[in-house]
Here is the input.
Amino acid sequence: MERAQKAQVVEELGRVFEDSGAVVVCHYAGMTVAEMSEFRSQMRDAGASVRVAKNRLAKIALQGKACEALAEHLTGQTVLAYAEDPVAAAKVVDKYAKSNDKLKIVGGAMGPEVFDAAGVKSLAAMPSREEVLSSIVGALMSGGANLAGAIGAPASNLASVVKTLAEREDV
Here is the structure.
């Protein structure tokens, strides 16, 4: 790899470390091309990405970044999984690692916080951004629905009383 290509890779990795909600570091020794393709496909479906990078270049890219301590996890055959949504990459990696024992979770980072494999699994257990937003919208909408029901209840009750009185007079 030429010097210019290395500089470009370092720049790209630097953007990954800065712009991603979370980065998960895994070892992938022994995975076949088909397994790696399946893993990439699952990550892509979740809105996340996968990057195999040379550890030396990734460590250079980490210099001066908030998650610089992540460099301690960059050993062996390393693959980086990352996404804008802090939980998406961790969820897919955790799920895939359960079905394929060749993918080993080593650690990860979310902003300046660097954590080990257990931390990545805890992150994967958290609800995704979409799940949190839908629960917030549901909570906001339930108050409005209850208020509309309370406002409409007296009119509904009055209508049923009038209907009952009308039925009594017809008898």
